[in-house]
User: Fold these one by one.
Assistant:
Number 1:
Amino acid sequence: MEFKEFIIRSYEGQSDRAQVEDLERRCKVGPSETMLDSMGDPISRIRNSPMYIMLVAEMDNELVGFIQGSIKVVTLECHPPKGIAKVGYVLGLRVAPQTRRKGIGSSLIQRLEEWFNSNDVDYAYVATEKENHASISLFMNKFGYTKFRTPAILVNPVNNHHSFRISSNIDIAKVNIDKAESLYRRFMGTTEFFPSDIQNVLRNKLSLGTWVATFKWENASFGLNGPNIGQVPKSWAMLSVWKSGDIFKLSIGRAPNSCLFFTKTWSLVDKIFPCFGLSTIPDFFSPFGFYFIYGVYHEGPCSGKLVRALCKFVHNMISKSKDENCNKIIVAEVGGRDEELNNHIPHWKLFSCPDLWCIKALKSEGKNTFHELVTDTQPRSLFVDPREV
Ligand SMILES: CC(C)(COP(=O)(O)OP(=O)(O)OC[C@H]1O[C@@H](n2cnc3c(N)ncnc32)[C@H](O)[C@@H]1OP(=O)(O)O)[C@@H](O)C(=O)NCCC(=O)NCCS
């Protein structure tokens, strides 16, 4: 095919929306052939970030690619002098199948990095599927990104027929947003990638709330909704819930054979023995939305149990909700030192997978921090921002 020139320009909502949505439908991502439906608003995934941009590639008046980026300030303890850094997140890179391997993806990344540089960004980072060779080769081999973290994505279908019993020894309470902000700043403020604008995350309409669990016998006077944090119990846990299904839906094009076999067998058992009350396996091949558990924190000798109780509580809350806009799926992402949370957050191994985060220092003075980040054998806990899921 003859090579044609293309231009890179900013996305214009009114005139580009339909073409972007069409291109999104034609681009399957990674071996699972995941597709994203942005439900009429292609910038819905970035518009909740402090700064964002979407660039498109145009060839002969036709859109042949696009990319999105967002900027925020986060905690990076090893970044001098204050342990905070400006980071740029790269997401939603798509190039039309018939125009691939012509440098369009590279030009989009280059222009996005220029925007990051003009806004004084210290590090750019991207999350991709571990098996997405095109994306990994593009970011790592061509643009010099380095593997940084591999948090686990934990997926748990909600069972509409079943409510989990929560121990009567455990108290679960919803905290107001001001209290949630103080708790997060005090206990997770030094977590890697903790966003300095956490108040915007918690106040966003997609954030359904923050819940804290404690043991009754500790009689904790946490002062949950007063101005002060009060006395902190020996063991406690908290988490928040974000409703991603209101802004985008995903669908999977191809599932591993093991997964198909399991799904068929499960449905058959459910049909023959409805009395078992098995979870309905969501149809991952049709567009589905999900609820995202974020900001999971726990401390104290028995706090794993409290995390589990909070997850059961979230499950029960979602199973009762009448909302049709979201399939009943709960997703969490945990990494770094928090990986042991896998043992406490209920999930189906078959549907869960690792994510690959890659990072690049954009300024020469950030190289030392960068080296420390990518060679750290005992990484800190990682805050996965629900705006970037
Ligand atoms: C990944 C993607 C954006 C690449 O776009 P592109 O315009 O083809 O990329 P470029 O032409 O700029 O490729 C630059 C380099 O990336 C690497 N690369 C790109 N596609 C590749 C592939 N399929 N396999 C291996 N390496 C690949 C190569 O090193 C290539 O250089 P080369 O062509 O000189 O060998 C495109 O394949 C795509 O849209 N895929 C589906 C969506 C997706 O996976 N997005 C990434 C999500 S993070």
Number 2:
Amino acid sequence: GPWQAWAYPPPKSMGRNSQLQPLLVSTPQQCLPLPSQSLLYSLYARTRLGYLFYQRQVKKARERYPHGHSVPQPYCFPGVKILPIPVLSNNYSYLVIDTGSSQAAVIDPSDPLAVQAAIEQEGVILEAIFCTHKHWDHSGGNEVLCQQHSSCRVYGSALDAIPRLTNPLADRETVTVGRLTFEALATPGHTVGHMVYVLDGGPFGSPPCLFSGDLLFLAGCGRPFEGSPETMLASLDVAVGLGEDTLLWPGHEYALECLTFASLLELDNPALEQKLQWVVQQRQEKRSTCPSTLGEEQTYNPFLRTHQPELQEALGLWQAGGEDPDAFRARVLKEVRRRKDLYQAT
Ligand SMILES: [Zn+2]
């Protein structure tokens, strides 16, 4: 997530905010469990400091991974091409192309150079940017791309401060780009205005494609920075409701770390073990692990398994007499989250 940025020293010129520098320098490694009320989160999400750190993050990642953090594998169905673009140290942007008209949309363009290179290589016209949420590692490329593609529209929730937003979307609203149809679904929790986008595969004989941003990862889930466990649970249920054949295209390459954590929670889950073995192989060769399907996610992703007695037992949680089932599942989700944060902090 955005906390990658804090692993680096802050920029030299911090202007009037320079009194913050000692605080930032003393911040330990990334991946601390930071509540949304914390000062660091507010700085990242709501001030120019967040942008400065994002710029540094982009620069570092370009040096460290000149060809991207992973080997992208395009996914093609007759009439549609989905190109994952590995950006920063573990983010994915996605270029979605209507191959008939060469019109394209990009999901979460964080590094505008990498996205522009893909646009040029594919020879497509950028019609739309879809932003899942405001965090810079998902929206930081909007500005530059809009300058280069003056007719490009920017979609997202009006509840998130998305740079250059031109077309605020409501829950369940659809947008067409050439022959591509995307449906926006409000999925608050990680941020108040978080949205996911579902590409209708029908016209192409393909399953639906879910671009999940920081709602859902392979075997993982985004931190609920701006929502309660109940809110996050409801948003995850929206995703699961899309159906088992739906392809999951997440905002980050977190598969190895998420599955390793999951395997410590559920010690006897063959589906999980099998997926972990496959992911280890993929990552040894720097290959991308997406897409998975929502069907398989429900067999190993602990954040989608809050209803499973095996997981509840492993966590030492039991439904209280008269406790609402969803309230109990939210409690399970909260405990999985707590353990994941502890796991990452060590
Ligand atoms: Zn985020």
